[in-house]
Amino acid sequence: MGTDHMGRLEKKIALVTGAGSGFGRAICLEFGRQGAHVFASDRDDDSNQETVDLIKEAGGSATPLHLDVCEVKDIAAALSTIEQAHGRLDVLVNNAGITQREDFRHITDEQWHEILDINLTAAMRLSRDGLKLLTAADGASIINISSIMEGVHVRQLSAYSTTKAAIAGLSRSIAVEYAAFNVRVNYICPGYAATAMTERILRNEAVRQGLVNRTPLKRFAAPEDIAKAALFLASDEASFITGEGLTVDGGMNIQL
Ligand SMILES: NC(=O)c1ccc[n+]([C@@H]2O[C@H](COP(=O)([O-])OP(=O)(O)OC[C@H]3O[C@@H](n4cnc5c(N)ncnc54)[C@H](O)[C@@H]3O)[C@@H](O)[C@H]2O)c1
């Protein structure tokens, strides 16, 4: 075991979607460091394998799963693999997501359905179909990745914002029903972070600087900031927290 192993998720079984990049990778690495067995999943097998290799290099334990969150058969296969290996799931992180920039009046039905399927419907399906495994754990937790865009809005992100607001509503609704199964459901609202998702817009120096200036703490989120928030919500330290959104944005959304 690596020297930075800290054990706040000791013996927990975790499934993370979109694990090949950005927040998903950072969450997997943090969970691995904290003693969880991480099922890292993505539709991109190469980047997902890199995440698994990084976890193992740091002394953690992980299994790669091919999981396109839009494919019902992939979801069924992933849950079945976890069931056969461990019979339970302690932490589910619905992180996989895409963005789109489009004027609302030009959004096509195809664009709309694609972003809803990946950013919203997938979290519904995994949370619904994963219940049996989550119930088998002794106090499980679902963490959904929303965004500050669930509550503040900018041009050309209407479809994205819709999915993120819906993720907040979905999380709170499921929290009410899943409390009976001892499953907590929370969501994280990250601010801007430099990941593959934001690469194109942050290449514009004026935009980049403008966003930093508008953030009271004067920087972007690091993927590790989101991973630490996920760690807290996944851990037993958050055992009385459910239906809650944790904003991790350096104060951006509260400043006029
Ligand atoms: N980067 C930001 O500034 C930011 C801010 C707020 C919220 N978020 C949210 O955080 C989450 C992660 O974003 P990121 O910045 O790490 O993005 P990213 O583009 O770096 O990583 C997203 C990952 O999801 C995977 N993915 C996409 N579609 C998939 C599918 N159908 N099935 C399985 N995997 C799929 C990709 O292959 C990729 O590995 C997303 O839900 C995003 O909306 C990001």
Explain what the structure shows.
The structure is a single chain. Helix content is about 45%, strand content about 15%. It is built from nine helices and seven strands, in the order E-H-E-H-E-H-E-H-H-E-H-E-H-H-H-E. Helix 2 links the parallel strand 2 and strand 3. It is globular and about 50 Å long. The relative contact order is 0.14. The model has no long low-confidence stretch (mean pLDDT about 95). The structure holds nicotinamide-adenine-dinucleotide. The site of nicotinamide-adenine-dinucleotide has 29 residues, from helix 1.
Give me a quick take on this structure.
The protein is α/β, with parallel strands linked by helices and 256 residues long. It has helices spanning 22-33, 45-57, 72-86, 109-129, 131-135, 158-178, 199-202, 205-213, 223-234, and strands at residues 13-16, 37-42, 61-66, 91-94, 140-145, 183-190, 245-248. It has one domain (13-192, 222-251): 3-Layer(aba) Sandwich (Rossmann fold).
Using brief descriptors, characterize the structure shown.
Rossmann fold, binds nicotinamide-adenine-dinucleotide, 256 residues
Name of the top-level CATH class? Alpha Beta
Q: Which percent range fits the helix content?
A: 40-55%
Which strand-content bin applies to the residues?
Answer: 5-15%
CATH architectural grouping: 3-Layer(aba) Sandwich
Dominant shape: globular
Topology, number of strands: 7
Rg over alpha carbons: 17 Å
Distance between the termini: 47 Å
The biggest sheet, with number of strands, parallel, antiparallel or mixed sense and barrel status, is: 7 strands, parallel
